[in-house]
Design brief:
Elements: E1 2-6, E2 18-22, E3 33-34, E4 44-47, H1 52-56, H2 60-77, E5 78-81, E6 84-87, E7 93-96, E8 103-111, E9 116-121, E10 124-130, E11 173-180, E12 183-188, E13 191-198, E14 217-221, E15 225-234, H3 237-245, H4 247-250, E16 254-255, E17 265-267, E18 272-275, E19 278-281, E20 286-295, E21 298-305, E22 311-318, H5 324-327, E23 330-335, E24 371-379, E25 382-387, E26 390-396, E27 417-424, E28 429-437
Amino acid sequence: MISRSLLCLAGLTWLIAINFSYGSDNQPPEGFIALFTGNDLSGWFGYDTKDPRKFQALSEEEQQAIRDKSQDDIKQHWSVQNGELVNDGHGLYLTTSKNFGDYELWVDYKTVPKADSGIYLKGTPQVQIWDPTNEAEFKNGSDKGSGGLWNNKAGQPGKFPLVLADKPFGEWNSFHIVQIGARTTVYLNEKLVVDSAIMGSFYDGGELPLIPRGPIQLQTHGGEIRWKNIFLREIPVDEARALLQKRDLQEGFISLFNGNDLTGWENAVDNYEVVDGSIRCKAGKGGVLHTKDEYTDFAARLEIKIPAGGNNGLAIRYPGQGDTAYVGMCELQVLDNEDARYAKLDKRQYHGSAYGMAPGARGYLRPAGDWNYQEVTVVGSTIKVELNGNLILDTDLSKITEYMANSPHPGKDRTKGFFGFAGHGDPVEFRNIRIKSLVTESK
């Protein structure tokens, strides 16, 4: 019996105490699958550093042709030896045929001096593996150790590991990776090295969010690397949402909703109701329900459930009257993007968009009727929207000069206002609504 344990650490760490054990190498524990059986390379093919969106856009026949063509290269550079997956430091990267969204991944590896490798998540580079003693790579951060999200942009959280956790050459290292959307936590040898950081997309200059689902890839070049105990567990949506939400109380967010009534909320109170611990817009009703307090810079976190065809919005720096999409800083759209009636909207009208001004990336909503976890951060003229762990909007409204239908938004430069919900007649629900002021009090 092989056992490992991790304890919950302070800060943004997602994981509670875990006892992880399995009978022998490559035999997955309960709830996990083995991506590598220890016997052969079934379930894998060879691929390079290429945008997974382009591969996923191909027909199944075209994808299979690429998988088949890669097998000669795989046979030349990859082998199975005594239950270990071995690469000679060359060739295509081993890539899972299956795509994954939210998951927990364990990987053991052993490498050699001066080798350079990594684990691609959702087909995107990468959780870095390299030689922390190789002075030639110190300029690139090798002295900081393995486990960082090396292809994140300079200065972004997660680019370099929090601690150096590599074991000496000749010993096996163990990764434990949890990825919810793009939110990525990495442990190396039971030490936290990346703490709930957003993994950048790398492709298209890193401007697009990480894709919703993609393959695991084992990158290798520059020296032999061995792998084993590659175990994966897909995380159900309710658990994924709960893991994201664990950060709220740790980071000083306060509740805006008591779960029982609309105490602390003003304006369109007659058009909303409290149902099963959530605030719901009454069918056929609307208007803006907003907080009693105004906010300048803030972060808000909440859960949103959108019925089929549902439409609502988040009022940002709302002045207290009028249409928040125009007189407030903006309305952040809340919408069932997949409903057929919305197939031909302007791209600035879909969920997460600063309505009429800046589009939110599509493809990250849960199905209609499921709860979504969303975070909104407003600082000065900038707005970020994170949906189910994916950064779908990051914009500076002061730089917007083109508007949908050429309709001006005179309120976009507001610096203060209420936070709330802009109902449009559909029973959209909100719960676990929390906020944190980002204004530093002057002494």
